[in-house]
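User: My collaborator sent over this chain with a note saying "see what the structure looks like." That's all I know about it. Can you take a look?
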Amino acid sequence: MSTPTAARTPADAAARPNAAPRRRAARSGRPTRVGWVLFFLLPSAVPLLAFSIGPMVGAAWISLHEWNLLSPMRWVGLDNFADLLADPATRNAFGNTVAYIVGYLPLVYVGGLALALALNARLRGRSLLRGIYFLPVVTSWIVVALVWRWLLNPSVGVVNWALGLVGIDGPGWWTDPAWAMPSIVLASAWKDLGFVMVILLAGLQAIPTELIEAARVDGAGWWRRLWSIVLPLLSPSTFFVVVISLINGFQVFDQVYAMTSGGPDNATETVVLRVHALAFRYGEAGNAAALSWLLFAVILAVTVIQVRGQRRWVTYA
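Assistant: Without extra context I'll predict from the sequence alone. Here is the result:
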């Protein structure tokens, strides 16, 4: 005896309205919804594969070899990583990079926050001021570095000349190992202040004015409103600025290359500058690729820690 088949009700047909057209599209060779998604992703996916993922995979392969960019590669496995971890120059490069970040991040954040607070007020010509402060962000790093190299020149620089007017003997700046990194930090913070200002200014304008007015009516002063209302509600923008600034800080290169080239006495040789020197000065492409992957691992670890830790201090209204 055959089992009777349940009759298909109109409700069943309504539950799967797209099943038949999808099957017909597949049989006819026309692209499905997934096919259209992949098609529209191609303009961004192809450059991503060609210029980001592809080079990363290639660098991982090169890091396992000894190669001087000319002769055939020779397999060495993880020896390049072991050599780098035991090399004092690697520790010096990471130490200089961390020193740069420690000086750069507080300076650029506090300066950007001060500008954002000032330009969030009702000032005449504030749109013009915002454009002026953002102008260094779109200026070439080489131009900015050369200008600051001249400003901080120990002999004929404007900064030491101004310090001399008030009786201060200016330091050697980028010619002195003790002052070379602060010189780069000053130039970097000045250039990036506009970027941080714009991000924090957008966050300030998203804070409801009713909260500020209510706190003012309750008698809260400017500092109390800043610490209790503005900074907590600004924490998402602060989190973004900190993450981006740390990633960029670990990859600092242009200003160091233009201002000091890693000197004097390797006092400003950062990790990316060390990668450049290993590859193009010493012909050690395998070590350079391995060091770039070590840097990637450090940046990834720091970013993951930040993302996990944001739950404790970031307030999403």
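A starting point for your reply to your collaborator: The chain is about 70% helix and 0% strand.
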